[in-house]
Each structure stands twice: as structure tokens, then as C-alpha cells.
Write a structure and sequence with these properties.
The protein is α/β, with parallel strands linked by helices. Strands 3, 4, 5, 8 and 9 form a five-stranded parallel beta sheet that branches. The chain has a three-stranded mixed beta sheet with strand order 2-1-10. α9 links the parallel β4 and β5. It is elongated.
Length: 443
């Protein structure tokens, strides 16, 4: 399990604790403890499994009679007992999950609406169901391994039996690994649900006051629906800069954009930006939007980041017919809308290459093209955090309204916090895409 998920949950729990009643605080802390314990137990199981394989291989090499495989006090059987005790301890965590599900299902406090509480209860219930299923399969696997080791004492034991047994164990292990991955994803989803719960708790008590009526509560998390915030900035489609609509609006700003998502780093980058109070547009490729990819962009959307279109397969559009371009753009729009419920507003062409056909399709889709003012992370010399940070903060192209191009890559992920801090030290603030419109939308 990823430690990051547990740490993030802890921070969310503290935030909730600071702004909610004692009973809700206690339940959040209890849920945090349950997830920490569950994650720790899974980590111990994985370590014990690795130890089991090392013992198994060592016994095959040193025990010509295979007697140790049937030795109830031997290392292999001791490992089986230890893993069985660990998996049985998870059953106690399941009881805690069930209690938490009941708490939020029946929650009647003033800090959260019943709808939000029930949504979180459903999230916990799904996680609880997955853990119960995993427990059952793991206990079956342990019994299977015990029977296999004991069979080594049988007279008809041969290497064909040995090989078959290894195949069976490996197949079961693969199923367990797959389920463990699903549980890890559900733990992360629970963290995101807690984050949503935190925002709901902060917004709903103010739902009827003057500030909420003026739209502040709808805009606080940078929601991607352009109706949630009054536009303050406009995209200059000639220079690709971000310009204030009113003279009184701050002009020393920059817009962050992330291309080629989700490629493995998008959520980490989003968490970094969220911690820094900064938002961005993630331009996604349809080819990455399998089931896992869709979950990523749904999470990004829920966190308040805007989702843009970067084509299906990242082609050079100037080499395609208009029908091929239409397929590249519309297919990705359809997938995004099916996933997050909103069609993208902004389109970024691969390599920044567009032609008249591209603009025809964009007009059909009601979209706005957005290239960039500068970016460097695809150049080899800048594919390390230090060099990338230096050029992004000190680029000669840096100016008011900078539209920064970055990619979903590890070196960019690792440089992101320093890039944000470096630009902020130079006096730049960051445009929230929810405050951004296209020039044609203002005409």
C-alpha cells in the first residue's frame, strides 16, 4: 500500500477535525487509524510473502529429502502461521469499517448534509466489501499452501507435482495481488472522498449567506464548470497569453498547464498544486483513458482541476484529413464527458500544430485552441528537476500572462513545487482556470 495515501488521509483528518464537531472529529480520527492499520497489515503481508518465497527456494536447494516442507515447526509453516494471524487481524479492521459505515449512514449532525455523509458511507462500504473478499481468498491461499507443503511427504511426490503446485500458488498470488491493487485504489478513493467531505463541510453552513449568493462558495475549489466563477482573465489567441479582462485585475500572473496526462504522475502533481493553493489545466490524451485513466481524470476533476483535450493518439494534425482530425478530437471529448460529465472547453494540439481543418472541428465542438508561451521539459537537457526549475523560473519568455507548458513526467513532477515557489518569489500569482474564458466568449 502506498504510504502517501495514509499521510494524505491524516492531513485531511486534521483539517476536518479543526472545523467540525467533536463527534465527527472522533469518527474521522478513528477512520484514519483504521486505514493506517489496514495499510500496515498489508505491508507486513507482502513482506512475509517475500520471505516465504526465499525460504521455499532455499529449502529446495538444501533439503534433498524435502522433509522440511512437512515440518510443522519449520520455517515455512511458521511463515504460514504468521500470515494467517495477520490476515485474521484485518477482520478487526473490517469491524471498524462497518462501524464507520453505520456512523456516516445514520449521521444527523449539522456539519455535513445527509447526502454527503451517505456518499462517504457508500465509499467505505465498497472498501469494506473488498477487504472481506480479500480476507477470504487469502485464507484459502494459506490452506492451499499448507496442503501443498504437507504433500511433499507423500511417497508419490515427484517434480511434476512440484511444478504444478508452484503454478497453483503463483496463480492464487496473482489474484491476491490484483485484489490488493483494487483495495489500494479504493483507499485512495476514500482519501479523495474525505477531501470532498471536507469541502462540503466548509461550504454548506454558508450556503445561505451573502458571500455564497455572490458565488464565492462555488468558486473556492476551482471547479471546471466555467459558470462557477466570474471570468477575470481571457486567453489571447494570437499570443497565447493570459490577460486580465478589467484593468484593475492583477496582471502579473501565470497559468499552469500539464500535457500528456494521465501518464502516471498527474495525481502527484495535482496534490502538490493543491497543497500550494494552485490550480491548472490537465490536457489529456484519449489513449491513456482506460479504466484507471478515467478514474484519474475523475479524481482530478473532483479536486477542482480543469480537463482539456490533447487528442486521442497525439498525432501531428497537419498530416491528417479533417475527418481524421475530427475523430481525434471528438472521440476524446466523448470519453471525457462520459467520465466527468463535462465536455472540455480548451484544446491543445500536439506539437502546437493546427490548420484550418482543426479550427473547423473546434468550432463544431465549441472549443477554444490553446497553445503556450513557453515550456522546456521535453528537451533532454532539462529532463532533471534542477535544470527544469531553473529554466522555468528564469526563462527569457517569462512575462505577465505567461502560459506555461509542462508534461506529466517524473522530472516535472519533482520540479513542480520549486517552480511554483520560484515564480511566486518573483511576484507571480497563478490563474485558476475557472476564472479564465476565451476572447470569443466575451465578445
Amino acid at each position: 500500500m502506498r504510504k502517501k495515501s495514509v499521510v494524505t488521509l491524516a492531513s485531511v483528518a486534521l483539517l476536518l477535525a479543526a472545523c467540525s464537531g467533536p463527534s465527527l472529529e472522533e469518527q474521522i480520527q478513528s477512520t484514519e487509524e483504521t486505514i493506517n492499520q489496514t495499510a500496515s497489515t498489508f505491508n507486513q503481508l507482502f513482506e512475509k510473502e517475500q520471505t516465504m518465497m526465499e525460504i521455499y527456494e532455499a529449502e529446495l536447494e538444501t533439503d534433498a529429502t524435502l522433509e522440511n516442507f512437512n515440518n510443522e515447526s519449520g520455517a515455512l509453516h511458521e511463515n504460514l502461521v504468521q500470515r494467517q494471524e495477520l490476515i485474521e487481524s484485518i477482520q478487526d479492521h473490517n469491524n471498524d469499517f462497518e462501524q464507520a459505515v453505520n456512523y456516516f449512514t445514520n449521521y444527523e449532525g449539522e456539519d455535513l448534509s445527509s447526502e454527503v455523509a451517505n456518499q462517504f458511507a457508500e465509499q467505505l462500504s465498497t472498501l469494506h466489501t473488498q477487504i472481506v473478499s480479500y480476507n477470504d481468498l487469502y485464507l484459502q491461499a494459506i490452506n492451499q499452501q499448507r496442503q501443498y507443503f504437507n504433500s511433499f511427504a507423500e511417497e508419490d511426490m515427484d517434480y511434476e507435482h512440484l511444478s504444478y503446485g508452484v503454478e497453483v500458488i503463483n496463480e492464487t498470488h496473482e489474484r491476491l495481488y490484483t485484489q490488493a491493487q483494487e483495495i489500494n485504489e479504493q483507499l485512495e478513493a476514500t482519501v479523495e472522498q474525505l477531501d470532498t467531505l471536507q469541502h462540503q463541510e466548509a461550504i454548506e453552513p454558508e450556503a445561505d449567506n451573502t458571500a455564497a449568493n455572490e458565488g464565492e462558495s462555488a468558486a473556492h475549489d476551482g471547479a471546471t464548470d466555467k459558470a462557477t466563477a466570474e471570468p477575470k482573465y481571457v486567453l489571447n489567441e494570437d499570443l497565447w497569453t493570459i490577460e486580465p479582462i478589467e484593468d484593475s485585475t492583477e496582471s502579473q500572473v501565470a497559468l499552469l498547464t500539464i500535457d500528456d496526462a494521465p501518464y502516471g504522475n498527474a495525481l502527484d502533481m495535482a496534490e502538490t498544486m493543491q497543497e500550494k493553493g494552485v490550480s491548472a489545466i490537465f490536457f489529456v490524451n484519449g489513449m491513456y483513458l482506460d479504466e484507471d485513466g478515467r478514474q484519474v481524470i475523475q479524481t482530478l476533476h473532483d479536486m477542482g482541476f480543469e480537463i482539456g483535450n490533447h487528442t486521442q493518439n497525439h498525432p501531428n494534425l497537419s498530416e491528417l484529413t479533417i475527418d481524421q482530425q475530427r475523430n481525434e478530437i471528438v472521440e476524446t471529448n466523448d470519453i471525457i464527458e462520459e467520465t466527468i460529465g463535462i465536455r472540455p472547453r480548451f484544446f491543445r494540439a500536439p506539437f502546437g500544430v493546427m490548420n484550418a481543418d482543426t479550427y473547423t472541428v473546434l468550432d463544431e465542438e465549441g472549443m477554444t485552441a490553446m497553445n503556450w508561451t513557453y515550456g522546456y521539459d521535453w528537451e533532454e537537457q532539462y529532463q532533471n528537476p534542477e535544470n527544469l526549475t531553473n529554466i522555468m523560473v528564469n526563462a527569457p519568455e517569462l512575462n505577465h500572462g505567461a502560459n506555461l507548458l509542462m508534461h506529466d513526467r517524473t522530472w516535472t513532477r519533482d520540479a513542480l513545487v520549486d517552480i511554483i515557489d520560484g515564480l511566486a518569489e518573483k511576484g507571480y500569482s497563478f490563474v485558476n482556470p475557472s476564472e479564465l474564458t476565451a476572447r470569443k466568449e466575451t465578445e
